[in-house]
Amino acid sequence: MKKKNVILIGFAGTGKSTVGKALSERLGWQFIDTDQRIEELQGISISEMFQTMGEQAFRVVESEVIDRTLKEEKQVVSTGGGAVLAELNRVRMQEGGVVVNLTASKEMIITRVSKDQSRPLVQGNVEEKVTALMESRKHAYDFADLAIDTSELTVNEIVERIAAVL
Ligand code: S3P
């Protein structure tokens, strides 16, 4: 049996944090942003972690945070776009609650990601980086219980679609 949580997965810029906050208010559950937890735990930003410790070290902390978070219930958990790359994380997510994959068009993702240059994996030529990363992660989010294309929906509509399957 799945635990009572909602886990939001999806590429950067698909609205996981925005939807997650709104959904947590709608359900009266706690909102957890794993990127934020990682930063609090390490006392530095994610881009500083990538610079000083490297991506692999970041991934280790990310897996620990996911594991620990999903031991609890009644949470809406927004995860980093690369959290699904580790099989163990995918297993924990599937056991940990209803997994929802938020998607958006590449154009929308590029527009959103360009506005926030703090993501270490999409520094420089954002369009090129996003295109390559999206291609390499084409099927990485397919294990979700539910996929929602956020491109033409309001936050409220997305929230209601998720609430309807709980
Ligand atoms: C990452 C996405 C980021 C963050 C880190 C790595 C990725 O989270 O975890 O920069 O590998 O796609 P968001 O998806 O919230 O931007």
Automatic annotation (TrEMBL):
Q: Does the keyword Amino-acid biosynthesis apply?
A: yes
InterPro entries (UniProt xref): P-loop_NTPase, Shikimate/glucono_kinase, Shikimate_kinase/TSH1, Shikimate_kinase_CS
Where is it predominantly found?
A: cytoplasm
Quote the record's cofactor note: Binds 1 Mg(2+) ion per subunit.
Instruction: Give its E.C. classification number.
Output: 2.7.1.71
- Identify a single GO molecular function assigned to this protein: kinase activity
Q: In which pathway does it act?
A: Metabolic intermediate biosynthesis; chorismate biosynthesis; chorismate from D-erythrose 4-phosphate and phosphoenolpyruvate: step 5/7
Q: Give the residues the record marks as binding substrate.
A: D35, R59, G81, R137
Chain positions recorded as ATP binding sites: G13, T14, G15, K16, S17, T18, R119
Subcellular location(s) of the protein: Cytoplasm
Q: Which reaction does it catalyse?
A: shikimate + ATP = 3-phosphoshikimate + ADP + H(+)
| Matches recorded under SUPFAM superfamilies | P-loop containing nucleoside triphosphate hydrolases
Entries under CDD domains matching the protein:
SK (cd00464)
Which residues does the record give as Mg(2+) binding sites? Answer: S17
Task: Give UniProt keywords alphabetically.
Answer: Amino-acid biosynthesis, Aromatic amino acid biosynthesis, ATP-binding, Cytoplasm, Kinase, Magnesium, Metal-binding, Nucleotide-binding, Transferase
**What cofactors does this protein use?**
Mg(2+)
The record describes its quaternary structure and partners as: Monomer.
What function is annotated for this protein? Answer: Catalyzes the specific phosphorylation of the 3-hydroxyl group of shikimic acid using ATP as a cosubstrate.
Which family does the record claim for this protein? Belongs to the shikimate kinase family.
The protein depicted here goes by the name Shikimate kinase
Look up and give the organism this protein is from: Paenibacillus radicis
Q: Which gene encodes it?
A: aroK
